[in-house]
Amino acid sequence: MPIYEYECDFCHYNFEKKQRFHDEAVATCPECQGRARRVLHAAPAIFKGSGFYITDSCKSNPKEKGKEEATSQGKQEEEQHK
What we know:
Blueprint lengths: L2 E6 L5 E5 L17 E4 L14 H4 L4 H20 L1
Antiparallel strand pairs: 1-2, 1-3
């Protein structure tokens, strides 16, 4: 069973309640009997493994890599001759 966090709108008392998914949310504060609301927190996201970054998903073709190296070498030679 999950534990839910609640906060009172009037006295700002924080409390937790262990409830089932289908149980109704707590509506009253146990301290002042004011209106309570469920507090929601952002869930952390952790990306592990390959494929999450552009550098991981784009594999260069070995043939194209050879062409790029030849082109860059040709450009360097042209600049040296100038």
